[in-house]
Amino acid sequence: AKSRSASAPSCATALLRGEGVAAGERGVRLDALTRALLGARAGVEPSKRREATPRVLVGRDRELRRLDDLRDESTEERRARVALLVGAAGTGKSRLAGEFLERAQKAGARCVAVSLASHEREGRAYGLAGAVLREALGVEPGLAHEAQARALRSSLTSLGALPGVPDDGRALWAVATLLGLDGARSVGAFEGAAWAHVERDPSWRAELLSSVFEACFAAYCARACGASDGGVVLVCDGLEAADRASLAALDRALRAVRELPVCVLACARPELLERAPALGFEREPQLARPERERQQ
């Protein structure tokens, strides 16, 4: 019994990684997208292998059709669309999100998926914003610091000049900070008068982080939409656990891409409705599209 108990954590990790279990042991087989969403909660790198017999989602045809229609509408009209899926724990939000992601990928969309565990509610500021940028820019969290810094510099260079963000190291510093990299200032060699503002004025620092997130997200979406007819799909699972700074930054970023084919699916428990900014959502516990476009 002792050896079986001791092997449980490693067995669970192996399941999420898609490595299977030893002969004679019981396990749960997960398809790749479900494993990716669950793995984000458990800190496990998702495997690139796909299951031979993926699970079939049952009883969600209507919701999937509405999501597919929303994504098609976004692509055809070249306008951003947002959907909010609200439900209690265990009602199948993550599974529905995984199925939607798979269908979007098959349709040629560029997909970014992030998942937050409920215990992250009191996490660091801009945790969700950093997770979105990390996925979009392809900066692997398991790499050594220098490797992450190199990947970050390369990804930002590929985005080109960011509108409204001076080329003085502040963009690199801001993204490194959002990603939670130690020594963020050294990544971008950020100094001078602008750095002095960051050091002494928290509101200036917050504005810089939010504006750089907006610029990077908009630049990524513009580039991805230009390279793919399927547009961009962003899925945020567990949004009720997101920090307020990230929610405000995401709200701001969505306004910046409203004329691009960007489709966002946010999955959350009901408590999100009591604390989130508008994000273009109707305030109802259902799958919903915006009632009206935001004004310029």
Write a brief caption for the model:
This protein has 296 residues and is an alpha/beta fold. Helix content is 49%, strand content 8%. The longest helix has 26 residues.
Description of the structure:
The protein has 296 residues and is α/β, with parallel strands linked by helices. It is built from twelve helices and four strands. Mean pLDDT is 75; it is low at 1-35, 38-58 and 281-296. A four-stranded parallel sheet has the order 1-4-3-2, with helices on both faces.
Index terms:
alpha/beta; 12 helices; 4 strands; globular; disordered N terminus; disordered C terminus
Shape assignment: globular
H/E order of the elements? HHHHEHEHHHHHHEHE
Major beta-sheet overview: 4 strands, parallel
Tell me the number of helical segments per DSSP (H or I, 4 or more residues long).
12
Mean pLDDT: 75
Side-by-side strand order of the widest sheet: 1-4-3-2
Oligomer: single chain
* Radius of gyration over all CA atoms, rounded: 20 Å
How far is the N terminus from the C terminus? 64 Å
Q: What topology does this entry show?
A:
Blueprint: H1 2-6, H2 8-17, H3 32-42, H4 61-77, E1 81-86, H5 93-106, E2 110-115, H6 127-137, H7 145-159, H8 170-178, H9 184-188, H10 193-200, H11 202-227, E3 232-237, H12 244-256, E4 262-268
Parallel strand pairs: 1-4, 2-3, 3-4
